[in-house]
Amino acid sequence: MIPAFTLTRSIKIHVTRFAGEVAKEEKRPELMPFLLMARDTDGITAASAAGHLLGAHEGRRQIAQRLLEQLKRSGALEAQGNEGFKLTEAGHEALEKEAVFIAERGSWEVWHTSDPLLPHGLIQLTGYTEPKAYDEVKHDAPKRDAKRPPPTLDALKGLPLAPIMGGERRRIDDLPNKVELLESKTGTLTWEVARKRLSLTVDEQTVDRPAPELAHKATFEALLETAGLTFDWDAETEILRRSFADLSDAFRRNMREDVTFPSPVRLHQYGNFEQTTVHGIDINARTLHDAEAWADWRLEDSINEIACSRRFDKWCSEAVAPFVGFTPLDLPSRQDLAARARPAEAGAPLSAVAWNLTAAEDWNL
Q: Do 247 and 222 share a domain, yes or no?
């Protein structure tokens, strides 16, 4: 089984302030009858709305006109002919949600970025209170950095979007040619691939987002490709073939390896990620030579008590068991292993393994 793993990367989040018009999606039940009338007729005018919805053809015509103009600015209605309006696709959506976009002119602070893991680049959009000129002079405020809107901000204009960090959908309707650029922020994207969980952390606040529809196995195999390990991966058994000499004792013993994939980890159309380690990948021998050396090592590593014939046979069976694809394997006899384990220097003390083997041989156990 492929272990779970996590991919992370840092993203640059631009912070911009501007004076303009932003529309916020709001529940406005009093406006729904106007949209319903526009849907159910060929069009709606101030006169027809005043007569049917406000109870007076002339006296309330101006009120109806203002409301229709507001719905036009929201995008729910569009002009039809000289005086009339008709429902738009956004208007049909507004009826389903019973909410429309209400525009507000003011000063705004927007966080924006561009990243293939995110559905769009609007991170946060909030109102901003401009300081009074007196306060700016008193506190010696730095000169504002007014520049053209960055491309990541230009791309958001006119789009109804729910900010990534949360909140109702908003839409930037009027973006000036000059905006104030502030110091950028750094966000961290964390993708838990097996759990299909994606999160963004900015200023110690974390929000969850839908993760890419990419299978855990396919993502892992893409990781292997970035590290040049595709040839060593057995997709059917989900085992990584490894050279015995390249493994630590712990990995040889557990038949699992922790593999570190250095940065940048390139993954399909989702960009680059930071260095990551996948823990506990199932491993096995790459060649017959590796299998024999590995089984030999496993046999010797198992000898933790006197190696009587029964125990030694059992240890031999366990040593070769993981390498069924390479059978038969040639393991040393107990006598040969005992001779190999003895120290070369005469009179040197025996290791625990050498003593367990030598004792069994000497006593013919």
A: yes
Q: Give strand ranges (E) for 157-244.
A: 170-174, 179-192, 197-202, 205-210, 233-234, 239-242
Q: Both 123 and 200 in a single domain? A: yes
Higher pLDDT pick, 133 / 363: 363
Q: Output the six-digit token pair for 24.
A: 């916020």
Residue with tokens 């049909």: 92
Burial 141-156, CB ≥16 within 10 A → b, else e = eeeeeeeebbebbeeb
Establish if 292 belongs to a structural domain.
Answer: no
Q: Which of 224, 223, 241 is nearest to 232 (CA)?
A: 241
Whether 150 and 111 map to the same domain: the answer is yes
List pLDDT tens digits, range 24-66. Answer: 999 999 899 999 998 988 788 888 888 788 776 666 888 888 8
The span from the CA of 327 to the CA of 262, in Å, is: 35
User: How confident is residue 134, by pLDDT bands cut at 50, 70 and 90?
Assistant: very low
* pLDDT tens per residue, range 223-269: 999 888 999 999 999 999 999 999 999 999 999 999 999 988 888 78
Q: Does residue 81 have a pLDDT over 80? A: no
State if pTM tops 0.90: no
7 and 134 fall within a common domain = yes
User: What is the span of the domain harbouring residue 72?
Assistant: 29-97
Cβ density class 26-51: b for 16+ within 10 Å, e for less = eebeebbebbebbeeeebbbbebbbb
Return the bridge partners of 52, or none: none
Q: Which helix (H) or strand (E) holds 265?
A: strand 265-266
Asked if residue 82 has pLDDT above 90, the reply is no
Residues 174 and 35 in one domain: no
Q: Which of 186, 213, 240 is the last residue of a domain?
A: 213
Cα–Cα–Cα angle for 234, 290, 242, rounded to 5 degrees = 40
Residues 112 and 201 grouped into a single domain: yes
